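Per your request, structure below.
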């Protein structure tokens, strides 16, 4: 009984620091949101549809494809928390400062040079996050048991999104009074300081149970490939990947929602107004994280993926059937729900479809395959927009998202009900 109480207290403590750290991370993310702030900044610097479409490709592809390297860098169980935090301090967060300093000095640079270097720093930031992200998620998964994992992660991401509401509103207010792109640099510098504080809070997470585990052996590439193959032998995992690829293809146009509402067709909203409306994404994300996490713990996380795909169709419907501020707010709120499903529900399904003991390799395999699509789909969307315009791409996105919903409903099984997956709910 006493041991159970200690375990519960440790879980609550970890949940509190996780929520606090995620809260500050959500605040800094919203201050420099790629979907709104970076999109507006690059547009002001003269970027066309192809460069705007590359934002999604760089962000998502940069996060998921390099995850394989984390298996080799963060193999020590005893040192994992320390190495994760130091990695963020010295390999990730500095690029926020680099972006801030670049934009602050932008008036002395050619716009072409500035926007390409800005994208390069943005790519470096996301690639470094990608290297640590699978290990980070596996580390969190070890801290909580299956019955509470979705709820705790949902609360953490929900807190992140809640502070993101204020970050988005603040960024929008600042941008309304901005007449020079150099002032966007202050947002990136502030985001860097807040990110440093955020990651520092994770130092207080108690992962003593993980430290007693043996360190992960650094696997030869052949062994890692064998683990990948073992994951892909399972039909339900393959079906899950197909569904996620369809959902990703149907929602690779997020930066163009911002472009649409700043255009005359979308209501001609000011840049600051659209950034403020973008805070609704954080609100939808916050609510969905808590609800989808709890719903997934009770009924399985496949339902969250179905909700996410359905809301992608709703988002495109909102965009295609009206313009103006209210429509913009509703669209971004719906986007937040979609993003939540692609995070909370996606990762928990990855955890629970693992057919072997090497969950990190399974996560890397799944995200690597999805990442290949993520690199291609936004570029195709940008080329299509340049040729046929935004409405065509929005219609195609709605159709592909509807196909993803049907696929999850009829072809993906709930892992918790599978009798063939001994590792499904570990």
């Amino acid at each position: 009984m006493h041991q159970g109480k200690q375990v519960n207290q440790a879980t609550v403590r970890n949940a509190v620091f996780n929520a606090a750290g995620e809260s500050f991370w959500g605040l800094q993310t919203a201050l420099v949101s790629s979907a709104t702030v970076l999109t507006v900044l690059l547009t002001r610097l003269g970027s066309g549809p192809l460069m705007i479409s590359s934002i999604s490709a760089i962000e998502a592809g940069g996060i998921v494809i390099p995850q394989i390297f984390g298996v080799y860098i963060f193999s020590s169980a005893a040192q994992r928390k320390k190495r994760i935090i130091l990695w963020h301090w010295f390999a990730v967060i500095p690029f926020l400062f680099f972006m801030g300093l670049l934009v602050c000095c932008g008036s002395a640079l050619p716009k072409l040079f500035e926007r390409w270097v800005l994208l390069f720093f943005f790519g470096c930031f996301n690639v470094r996050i990608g290297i640590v992200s699978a290990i980070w998620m596996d580390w969190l998964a070890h801290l909580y048991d299956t019955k509470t994992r979705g709820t705790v992660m949902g609360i953490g991401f929900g807190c992140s999104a809640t502070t993101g509401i204020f970050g988005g509103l603040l960024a929008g207010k600042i941008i309304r009074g901005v007449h020079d792109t150099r002032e966007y640099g202050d947002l990136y510098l502030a985001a860097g300081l807040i990110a440093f504080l955020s990651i520092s809070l994770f130092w207080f997470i108690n992962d003593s149970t993980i430290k007693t585990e043996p360190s992960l052996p650094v696997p030869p590439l052949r062994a890692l490939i064998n683990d990948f193959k073992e994951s892909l032998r399972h039909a339900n995992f393959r079906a899950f990947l197909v569904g996620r690829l369809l959902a990703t293809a149907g929602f690779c146009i997020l930066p163009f929602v911002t472009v649409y509402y700043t255009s005359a067709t979308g209501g001609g909203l000011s840049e600051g107004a659209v950034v403020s409306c973008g805070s609704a994404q954080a609100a939808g994300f916050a609510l969905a994280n808590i609800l989808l996490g709890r719903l997934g713990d009770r009924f399985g996380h496949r339902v969250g993926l179905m909700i996410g795909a359905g809301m992608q169709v709703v988002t495109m419907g909102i965009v295609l059937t009206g313009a103006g501020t209210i429509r913009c707010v509703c669209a971004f709120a719906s986007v937040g729900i979609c993003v939540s499903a692609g995070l909370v529900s996606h990762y928990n399904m990855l955890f629970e479809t693992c057919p072997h003991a090497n969950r990190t390799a399974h996560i890397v395999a799944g995200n690597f395959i999805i990442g290949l699509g993520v690199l291609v789909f936004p570029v195709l969307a940008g080329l299509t927009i340049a040729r046929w315009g935004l409405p065509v791409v929005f219609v195609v996105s709605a159709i592909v998202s509807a196909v993803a919903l049907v696929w999850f409903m009829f072809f993906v099984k709930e892992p918790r009900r599978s009798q063939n997956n001994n590792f499904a709910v570990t």
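Confidence is low (pLDDT under 50) at residues 419-426.

Regards,
D.
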